[in-house]
Every structure is written in structure tokens, then in C-alpha cells.
Inverse folding.
């Protein structure tokens, strides 16, 4: 019994599979450690089968072994870049929670996050879990997958300098957005330090330094509760930034 393969189809599928695996190994939620490797491989196979024809029409297929390795590596990097942009904006919740703990004047012992299997501060885990809930409830997972499939309609997608420029811009947006989430606590902590400094000068017998740290922790928790209703609006803004980054990368 002989099994015949169409070489044109096989090369296109290998390239599509390379891009899909690069995306799945980096992008949230596929890259979470709780997702088994076999499940990621199965998703990569399915994505490759669904995008092979679009990729064949978007690029020129290589005719040599060296060219095949080079184009497959390029497709792997393209998928990893798309996945990294998605992961970057989803990780905003954890980074914002870490800044909340830092600005709050207390550093809680790290706890094991059951989803990422990493040790993160409790505040970071709290914000990260809320961010994940918003990610699935708002349909942002569909946006991430749609952006990946839309990349197959764009020829000559990977330009190193252009991609690095978008990456730097995205990291800057991530840092600024994290500061926006933690800014209410930062402002309260700043003014509390001013008040304590004034009390220390005006009434030194109060020993203000003895209650400043419990006061900071109390104010931090209060501001965390106050800032919770604002998280959906910040999440919506971060998703718009993600869409802008994908649009710039895809040239649309």
C-alpha cells in the first residue's frame, strides 16, 4: 500500500503549523502551565489545518531545504510575536497588583498561583485572577484568536525593526497602564506620608511613626476595594491597546 502526499500542501501545512505552535506556546490562555503539552500540540495541529490554504496564498513557498527551514523559523517567530503581544496585555493585571503591594508599603509573602504555577504576591494574584475573569467574560479570548487568524491575510508580515518598535510601544503601554491601576493607592500613600510628616513636626508626642505602617496597609486595602469597579474600564482600554498593536503589526 502506498500513501501519496501533495508536497505543495505538506510544505504549506508545515509552515502554518510552525506559526500556530509559536503562537500557542506564548499566547494566553494556551501558554498556561495547566494546559497539557499534548493539548497544545493538538490545538496547533488544528490551527495548522485551518490556516494552511490562507498561508499558501499569502507567501511564496520555498523550494529548497534551507529555504524551508528559514521560512519555518520566520513563521515560528511571527506566531510567537503575535502571542507575546496578547500575553503582554493579559499580564497587566499581575503587574498592576505587584505595584499595588509595592506602593502600599507592604510586601506580602508570595503565594503559588494555581494557573501560572509561579509564586506571585497576593495582591498580584488577586488582580491577575480578576483580569483572567474579565478576559473570558468580555470575549477577549475571541479577539486574540481572531487577530491570529487575521495575520494569515497579511503577506510579508515580519519586519524586525517594525516589530521591535511595536514591541517597545506595547511594553510602554503596559507599564503606564499598570501605573494607572495603582495610581489611586500611590496618591493616597503620598498624602498619608505628608500628613504623618506634619503630625511628627506638630505633635511629636503622638509617635506617628508607630502607626504609619498599619495605617498604610489599611488605606491600601480600602483603595483596592475602591479601585475594583474601575477594573472593567481599564481592561477595556487595555484590549483597545491590544487591538491597536495587532492592527499596526498586521498593517491594517
Amino acid at each position: 500500500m502506498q500513501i501519496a502526499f501533495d508536497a505543495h500542501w505538506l510544505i504549506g501545512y508545515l509552515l502554518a503549523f510552525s506559526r500556530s505552535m509559536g503562537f500557542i506556546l506564548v499566547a494566553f490562555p494556551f501558554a498556561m502551565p495547566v494546559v497539557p503539552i499534548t493539548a497544545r500540540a493538538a490545538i496547533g495541529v488544528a490551527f495548522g489545518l485551518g490556516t494552511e490554504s490562507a498561508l499558501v496564498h499569502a507567501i511564496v513557498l520555498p523550494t529548497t531545504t534551507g529555504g524551508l527551514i528559514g521560512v519555518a523559523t520566520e513563521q515560528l517567530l511571527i506566531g510567537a510575536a503575535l502571542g507575546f503581544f496578547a500575553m503582554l496585555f493579559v499580564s497587566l493585571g499581575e503587574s498592576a497588583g505587584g505595584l499595588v503591594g509595592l506602593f502600599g508599603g507592604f510586601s506580602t509573602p508570595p503565594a503559588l498561583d494555581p494557573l501560572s504555577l509561579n509564586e506571585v504576591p497576593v495582591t498580584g494574584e488577586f488582580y491577575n485572577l480578576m483580569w483572567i475573569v474579565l478576559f473570558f467574560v468580555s470575549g477577549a479570548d475571541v479577539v486574540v484568536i481572531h487577530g491570529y487568524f487575521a495575520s494569515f491575510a497579511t503577506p510579508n508580515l515580519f519586519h524586525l525593526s517594525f516589530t521591535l518598535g511595536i514591541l517597545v510601544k506595547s511594553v510602554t503601554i503596559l507599564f503606564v497602564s499598570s501605573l494607572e491601576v495603582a495610581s489611586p493607592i500611590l496618591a493616597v500613600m503620598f498624602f498619608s506620608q505628608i500628613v504623618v510628616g506634619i503630625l511628627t513636626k506638630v505633635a511629636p508626642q503622638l509617635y506617628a511613626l508607630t502607626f504609619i505602617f498599619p495605617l498604610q496597609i489599611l488605606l491600601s486595602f480600602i483603595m483596592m476595594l475602591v479601585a475594583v469597579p474601575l477594573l472593567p474600564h481599564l481592561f477595556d482600554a487595555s484590549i483597545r491597546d491590544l487591538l491597536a498593536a495587532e492592527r499596526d503589526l498586521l498593517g491594517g
In short: The two ends are 48 Å apart (CA to CA). Residues 7-250 form one domain. DSSP finds nine helices and two strands in the chain. Residues 85 and 242 are 7 Å apart (CA to CA).
